[in-house]
Amino acid sequence: MAVETLTPAEAMAPAKPQRESQMRLMWRRFRQHQLAVISLWIVVAFYLVAAFAEFLAPSDPGAYSARYTYAPPQGINFFVQGEDGGWSFQPHVNGYRSEVDQAAMRRTFVIDPEEIIPVQFFAPAEPYRLAGIIPMSVKLMGVENARDPFYVLGADRLGRDLLSRLIHGTRISLSIGLAGVGLSLFFGIVIGGFAGYYGGWFDSAVMRVIEFIRSLPTIPLWLGLAAAMPKDWNAVQTYFAITIILSLIGWTELARVVRGRFLSLRTEDFVTAAQLDGASDWRIITRHMVPSFTSHIIAAATLAIPGMILAETALSFLGLGLQAPIVSWGTLLQDAQNIRTLATAPWLLAPGVCVVVVILALNFFGDGLRDAADPHGR
Amino acid sequence: MLRFILNRLIAMVLTLWAVSFVAFAIIQLPPGDYLTTYMATLAAQGERVDPRAIEALRQQYGFGEPYVVQYWKWITGILTRGDFGQSFEWKAPVTTLIWGRLANSILLEGLAVVVMWLIALPIGIFVAVKKYSLGDYLATVAGFIGLAIPNFLMALLLMYLSFVYFGTTIGGLFSPQYESAHWSLPRLWDFLSHAWAPVLVLATAGTAELIRILRANLLDELKKPYVTTARAKGLPEWKVILKYPVRVALNPLVSTIGWLLPALVSSSVIVSVVLNLPTAGPLLLRSLTSQDMYLAGAIIMLLGVLTVIGTLISDLLLAWIDPRIRYGSK
Predict the structure, then answer these.
(1) What is the residue range of B300's domain?
(2) B202 and B319 in one domain?
(3) Which residue has the higher pLDDT, B45 or A342?
(4) CB within 8 Å: B311 and A215
(5) Domains of chain A as residue ranges with CATH
(6) A213 touches chain B (CB under 8 A)
């Protein structure tokens, strides 16, 4: 048996109780949900893509090339077979060979395995500003000769690179989800907080309004509001207008959560104690009540993001949300609306895959967060 | 029961009033009024504008007067004459345009609700009884995917798959020759052979949700002592499950129609656009893009009214099957 040796000072000091912060406890519980942890990493990865869009996208999302309309995805291959039959490491894409489809009377592209276009990582590029701030002149990948085709995920109607557009669309779609939830959260906390803390007629009025809004079909309403947007608004204006329109309906769920929390906490002993101590309402709310349910609010907000992303995608898909020069998953999917187009270029559905993955990941992550935030769970 | 119905009816009238207010607000939202747009289109088409006709319209809708007056003229027109105003794009009264399409919407959504229940009920019972079996996991995974794929994406995918693998395009509700025919057996068959796709697409998300709720409810019920009692008395297993716990577990499920319906109406708009169905959805989209606001307002209002009435029906249904609600909410 090992005998622990203590220095006199340590032996004299009273044993410090092990304390862990609320956040650490939550994190520990959260880590037990494997699916939630994996989802967290997926979500983080998507937001990183959104943050470094300019660096990751091989080309400008608006750059078009009439030569390569609906060019199929090239993919990236990493090994080439040399003359002697041995394989060597050389990241590359294959060139295209164009063929004329006699039946449909149009040009189609076929991947030409003979033609090898080397791909460079950290390739030099035209100087640009990352997120509009940091000047850079290196991109994650690129081809040596700018005239060579480089369509990892294929091209669209105008020969624009789908991968680059997808990456830039990620930035818009994910940020509009965050911004919409942020705004909803603001409305939700202010309105729901007032209703829950003071109760009375204001509470019942707010609850009736929330019930009313939730009993309406949202898409027709959103469409009606979005259609009122003047057509000549610029990108930034439409972006914010859409965010506001989405949160006009989105605040209700969060307000309900906040109100519920306030109602249940209002009668807790520690709140009564603070009231008897003569603390002001403001102090009670900000110092005593809010910290005890922040985690719940964060979980509820996370679970609200997928709805926002879906709503933006649906609106833009229908043509009443964000408009053409802005690239979002919804505007990208607009190109895939036509069955003929879809049959020629099924890769245009790629933004849809992103939507599904992100929605699933955010849902699992939010569920895990909610379970972890609930101290009575399990 | 009468008192309950009366309460609900009063609440519904208030809600409908609020719906009409929202619809009217949307009509008023775009800059400029309907008359100016109307005159502009007429002038653009090179037609002569009769000042007397314009004046008559101005009188009828109260343009230039306060919003309250305009709202009053609009709503009394709807309530007394069933007049929803004029569609300037189609140059026809709104009422002649929407009823047929609205009927299609109701038909599709009704079918979707039925299909949802038909699929969700057996699967929900199965996964609750065989908890943690392979089938349970499969249903859970399928349910999550069903929830995560947006409806319109599902429609696109279905369209693509049927085009690539079967060489057919799905879309529309009728073949051209049955478009305006009267209902008959061949027309019904034609309708069903078109409608399965949109109904299936509309039903997926709701089905997944219903299965989840039914599973949770039923799991709670199956633990209760009365189930053990029934089993101990020697009832066959199917009777033990179907006769008592399933019936109790169904009650909360009926109440889900209340929030299922808005979502369903919502998604039917976008699915109809994708699959090119003659329902209210594409008409709404078109009227909104061309700023044909009386038409758009009427559709938004009627979709809202439909949803509210549907919710009321589900509430009454719930009160009818569950006495606790009938007597509890005095």
Answers:
(1) 101-328
(2) yes
(3) A342
(4) yes
(5) 40-51+166-373 (1.10.3720.10), 70-159 (no CATH)
(6) no
The pLDDT of residue B309 is above 80: yes
DSSP string, A255-323: HHHHHHHHHHHHTSHHHHHHHHTT--HHHIIIIIIHHHHHHHHHHHHHHHHHHHHHHHHHHHHTTSSS-
Using CA atoms, how far apart are residues A42 and B106, in angstroms rounded to an integer? Answer: 40
**pLDDT exceeds cutoff 60 at A6:** no
Query: Length of chain B in residues, anyone?
Result: 330
User: Is pLDDT above 90 for A44?
Assistant: yes
Q: Which residue of B has its CA nearest to A210?
A: B15
**ipTM of the shown complex:** 0.81
- Nearest chain A CA: its distance from B315 CA (Å): 13
Q: Best interface-test mutation with A: which of B288, B291, B293, B295 has the largest number of A CBs within 10 A?
A: B288
Q: Which of B17, B49, B83 is the last residue of a domain?
A: B83
- Cβ pair A325, A62 in contact under 8 A: yes
Scanning every residue of chain A, which has its alpha carbon at the shortest distance from the alpha carbon of B272? A318
Of the candidate ranges B276-280, B283-287, B316-320, the one whose mean pLDDT is the lowest: B316-320
Q: Tell whether B165 and B283 lie within a shared domain.
A: yes
What does the alpha-carbon distance between residue B257 and residue B252 come to, in Å, rounded to a whole number?
Answer: 10
Q: Identify the CATH number of the domain in which residue B294 sits.
A: 1.10.3720.10
What one-letter code names the amino acid at B153? Answer: L
Closest in B31, B148, B266 to A218, CB measured = B266
* A130 in B contact zone (CB under 8 Å): no
| Per-residue pLDDT at B88 exceeds 80 | no
Asked if B19 is an interface residue toward chain A (Cβ–Cβ < 8 A), one would say yes
Averaged over B186-199, what is the pLDDT? 82
**Residue A232 backbone phi and psi in degrees, to 5:** -90, 10
pTM of the model: 0.82
- Chain B residues lying within 8 Å of A227, measured CB to CB: 29-30, 288-289, 291, 296
pLDDT in tens, A108-134: 777 777 777 777 777 777 777 777 777
Contact by Cβ (8 Å): A305, A246? no
pLDDT of the residue at A375: 62
Chain B residues in contact with A218 by the CB 8 A cut-off are 262-263, 266
Cβ distance of B269 and A219 shorter than 8 Å: yes
Give the span between the Cα atoms of B128 and B222, in whole angstroms. Answer: 9
Taking CA–CA distances from A341, the nearest residue in chain B reads B160
- In tens, the pLDDT along A79-119 reads 777 777 777 777 777 777 777 766 666 677 777 777 777 77
Which residue of chain A has the CA closest to B18? A212
Question: Which of A210, A211, A214, A219 is best to mutate for the B interface (most B CBs within 10 A)?
Answer: A219
Same domain, B189 and B250: yes
Most confident of A156-165, A334-343, B91-100, B118-127: B118-127
Distance from CA of A178 to the nearest CA of B (A): 18
Report yes or no: A298 at the B interface, CB cutoff 8 Å.
Answer: no
Query: Backbone dihedral region of A17: left (phi > 0), alpha (psi from -120 to 50 degrees) or beta?
Result: beta
Q: Is the pLDDT of residue B330 over 50?
A: no
Compare CB distances from B270 to A314, A336, A355 and report the shortest one's residue: A314
The mean pLDDT value for B216-243 works out to 87
Partner A contacted by B184 (CB < 8 A): no
Which range among A127-141, A159-173, A285-299 has the greatest average pLDDT? A159-173
